[in-house]
Fold Acid protease.
Amino acid sequence: MYFPLTLVFAALPILVAAVSLAGSPVSRGISVPISKRGGLRGVRSLSVSTSQTRLPYYHTCRKIGYRMVVYEQNTGRQHPLAGGLKPMGRRDSASETLIDDSELWFGSISIGTHVDSFTVNLDTASSDLFVPSFKCGSSCWGHKTYDPSASAHSNDLGIPFTLTLGDSDIVTGEQYSDSIQVAGLTASAQTLGLATSYSEGFQIGNFSADGLMGMGFPSISVFNAVPPLQTLISENMLTSPVFGIKLATLGSDLFLGGVNNSLFTGDFSWVSLSNAGFWQAPFDAVIVNGTRIVGKTETIFDTGTMKILGDSAGIAKFFASIHGANSAPEYGDGTYTIPCDFDTPISVWVGGTEVKISAASFNLGPLQGSEDGTTCEAGAAADSTLTGEFWILGQIFLQNVYSAWDVGNLRIGFATLA
Ligand SMILES: *[C@@H]1O[C@H](CO)[C@@H](O)[C@H](O)[C@H]1NC(C)=O
Ligand SMILES: *[C@@H]1O[C@H](CO)[C@@H](O)[C@H](O)[C@H]1NC(C)=O
Ligand SMILES: *[C@@H]1O[C@H](CO)[C@@H](O)[C@H](O)[C@H]1NC(C)=O
């Protein structure tokens, strides 16, 4: 019922030949294999005491809240969803690890003239690229580090940075400009952060990729810079200013310059972005076994978050429609359990189309204390800092659909997975 715990190691980027369709322009779409490293369920099932309980979804709202502040600094305007988060006043040490391993979907990029390759977590809800600097000491141990002096293109911008993904999830370092390559495509002048210090949440046991690549818009960039995929677009490296994503346990794919036609069927349903900062657009409704839980609501589409996250009242109503579901705060605030034989139909309507959330993807597997395998963790959770103005649709949603992220037309599209 749940994804097997698999350890998948990062693959080097594979260059895929350009495809030419008769009568149409040459498509320069390129696939970047992306991998997932398992671990959450193994870790979670070992975590009973509160101090070890991880609340990965809680970081999500911290990350988003910090990016809203950055948005205001960059644009001089309050983020339109700022009212959707309660003030971030809470201090809870149990909630301050960064991102659980199983939330890391990562790809490989190269930096500099020597084309050093790094694995980076792919995060659509932030917009900065950082990797460890060779000057980073023990806090970067286990990660690959980068020495910019080896690159003919590197340029020290002389600007220090502090990047916050949660209260104690902090990366500091210096901003550089350098050439980077994604799937063999070069962005010649990319602003990136070379980290000289990683807080615990980024240390190797908690964060298996070397760095992180934000895939949102410049307005939420801490560096106030154009993020890598948008640099590829502005430097005209892509035929089409779109990237396509398939997230799956196996066979995940980030497609640059369009969508990979072999990974979906039928047409895309498109939704215009409400604002170009996060990938933010409304869904039409969330339906559980025929009950409409919420109607049209803004949402942030986030590859860096695992679950479907909503406000406490909305999520309580959601689980009230699922037979046998229970609130289970002992596994982390906002956590819910479902029976392991769960098969309640759940769907999210978006762009006028139904995206069915499969029972297999929604069921995150047995929780400790349920070794008989009857109580499993649900793929949706409440975040008490959300007011209900917006939800966050993470990997549990994105694994059930092929998505097209259209930077040129400021819209996001969804099609049925092939
Ligand atoms: C599309 O995805 C399939 C399956 O992952 C892959 O084999 C193929 O090479 C991709 N097509 C292109 C043009 O990259
Ligand atoms: C992971 O994060 C936790 C909490 O921040 C910390 O106690 C632990 O030492 C970290 N583990 C590693 C290997 O960095
Ligand atoms: C769906 O709801 C119907 C009644 O409205 C109920 O009989 C059925 O058991 C529910 N199905 C699930 C899987 O919860």
Observations:
- Residues 194 and 359 are 41 Å apart (CA to CA).
- The chain has two domains: 36-227, 261-417.
- The longest strand covers residues 169-182.
- Confidence is low (pLDDT under 50) at residues 1-28, 36-58, 89-102.
